Amino acid sequence: MMNIDMIHNPVLRRVAEKALSGTPVDEKDAIAMLTTSDIVELGHIADFVRRRENGTKAYYGVNMNLNYTNVCELRCPLCAYSRDEGEEGAFTLSLDEIEKRVRGAVEFGIDEVHIVGGLNPSLSLDYFLEMLRLIKRIKPDLFIVAFTATEYEYFARRSGMELSELFRAMIDAGLGALPGGGAEIFDPGVRGRIAPRKISGKRWLEVMREAHRAGLKTNATMLYNHIEEPSHIADHLSRIRELQNETGGFKTFVPLPFHAENTALAVEKQATGFDHVRIYASARIFLHNIPHIKGLWMYLGEKLAQVMLHFGVDDIGATYHYEKVVHAAGATTDDVGSEERLRRIIENAGMAPVRATAAY
To answer: Which of 39, 207, 218, 265 is 20 to 30 Å from the Cα of 184, by its Cα?
Structure first.
């Protein structure tokens, strides 16, 4: 139970009272949380919400990342991973190469395959459907989390299919859930600068709505630490919460700190530990209708991910064999984690580790 007497900041006390009563906080509250200096009090509220939802459980996964191509026609300023066809470092995996990588990861004992890639015009829908079928043939109980809303919109447009039809075909091929990538920040002004050719925030939400209608659970993400302001974050959280009220299809919210190295986006600010804490704690409190908040150890680093388990986070991510995207942007964490390592992070934070897929 939360001790309301520990909250002395009058604005945060109002937030705490809402959390206790189950009343959703509003965007004004979100901005106050995102700018407060009373980090311990904010954390006290976030930890209460976290424990009410998940107790002392903290989730982790044993999986592989499958980045099938870095050829992408968008070439977003925020991305250090993408290449043009024929450019040095450009690649596209054949289905044989994908089979080899998945079989290798299966030997590690993975439960899940996480798939994202660029918008490569040389790849047909059959390539993606066969990719999913191939993975299921290798190990039928592997859980597949595949393709972002941006990718699905691209697949549907190029194949002339309705999203509902596309999702049915993907599910039949083995799709289990969607990652939350491509959300970035929904505000059109910010989005127009960091990802000018990517689908709009409105369209991202429309694609997710269709996925939820098809019976798929999804993640939702938010990219921060670039040119956004607290008001943009509050708006982003609000739109996600609104869709969740409608569909109930989001299972996890994942804030992603932006790594500017090797990208075309000029960013001078650098997020502090306080900034990270405010983002994750505010998200946990604001998104009362989403079960899980994920703090990816690969983005945050082990120590900060461990701290976040007391500031609203209940999932630290997975082993991510073969991860490429965040490391292309300058992440300095290892590109793979062991199960033992992830359990130790959780246990040392005083939480109970639970191995799970994206289906929890």
So the answer is: 39
